[in-house]
Write a structure and sequence with these properties.
It is found in: Cell membrane. Keywords: ATP-binding, Cell cycle, Cell division, Cell membrane, Membrane, Nucleotide-binding. The chain is of the alpha/beta class. It has two domains: about 140 residues, Rossmann fold; about 60 residues, no CATH class. The strands form two sheets. It has a six-stranded mixed beta sheet, with helices on both faces. Strands 2-1-4-5 form a four-stranded antiparallel beta sheet, covered by helices on one side. α3 packs across α4 and α4 packs across α5. It is globular. The two termini are about 20 Å apart. The protein binds adenosine-5'-triphosphate. The site of adenosine-5'-triphosphate (ATP) has 10 residues, from α1.
Length: about 220
């Protein structure tokens, strides 16, 4: 369960990126965060993985107060999360295998367990045959599928995706949505920021709309 109470975030004194946001997201939900450019979508997601801190308000994830977490506790919070970005954010100097294995290595998992899980995660996105390649040798759609494998390899409690389909063609977008749907069916709570109205129509889910940092709509379709 994610509980967001009265959260405000200002990057500068005169404008609020988020203004008094209150939101409850039960375990297993699939939520689209939508709204115009600059509405605060990315900021809201960043607060959840402690990439930014709110100026006011509280965020509880599974009963733990993210807003009060020390820097040392943040990596433990992130172990429960998979994050996917529009620009993939793969490490260029590491192979596909190494990119996906990284999160498990940080968790101190055993070598054979890592290789089993990485292979399964890459197979799930149809890229097990490219595990020795480097990110820049792959197409954009393939790179995003690696990023999804990296996010899902930890069996995340929460999958956070910030405009993940922004650089993808329509077919790859559908493949990615199907991967998110099955992760959700396996129990991950999914939060996905998107501008894409067609996508939201195609995959009817809970829709949270932000405008100018305010929550203007929260509906289930
Ligand atoms: N690091 C930052 N420093 C200063 N201002 C920022 C920073 N990040 C975001 N902002 C501002 O906060 C507001 C919300 O930005 P945010 O990126 O959360 O919006 P968004 O809805 O995700 O937009 P987009 O759809 O264009 O990505 C905007 O006015 C933006 O300019």
């Amino acid at each position: 369960m994610i509980q967001i109470y009265n959260v405000c975030k200002n990057y500068s004194k005169d404008s609020a990126a988020l203004d008094q946001i209150t939101l409850k997201i039960p375990k297993g939900d699939f939520v689209f965060i939508t709204g115009p450019s600059g509405a605060g979508k990315s900021t809201l997601l960043k607060l959840l993985y402690a990439g930014e801190r709110p100026n006011r308000g509280q965020i509880l994830i599974d009963g733990r107060n993210v807003t009060r977490m020390s820097g040392r506790q943040v990596p433990f919070l992130r172990r429960k999360m998979g994050v996917v970005f529009q620009d993939f954010k793969l490490i260029a100097g590491r192979t596909i295998y190494e990119n996906v294995a990284f999160a498990l290595e940080v968790q101190g998992r055993k070598r054979y367990e890592i290789s089993k899980k990485v292979y399964a995660a890459l197979k799930n996105v149809g890229l097990e045959h490219k595990l020795n390649r480097y990110p820049l040798e792959l197409s954009g759609g393939e790179q995003q599928r690696v990023a999804v494998a990296r996010a899902l390899v930890v069996d995340p409690m929460i999958l956070i995706a910030d405009e993940p389909t922004g650089n993808l063609d329509p077919e790859t977008t559908i493949e990615l949505m199907e991967l998110f749907k099955s992760a959700n069916a396996r129990g991950s709570t999914v939060l996905m920021a998107t501008h894409d109205r067609d996508l939201i129509r195609r995959y009817p889910r809970r829709i949270v709309t932000l405008e100018n940092g305010r929550l203007t709509e929260d509906r289930e379709v």
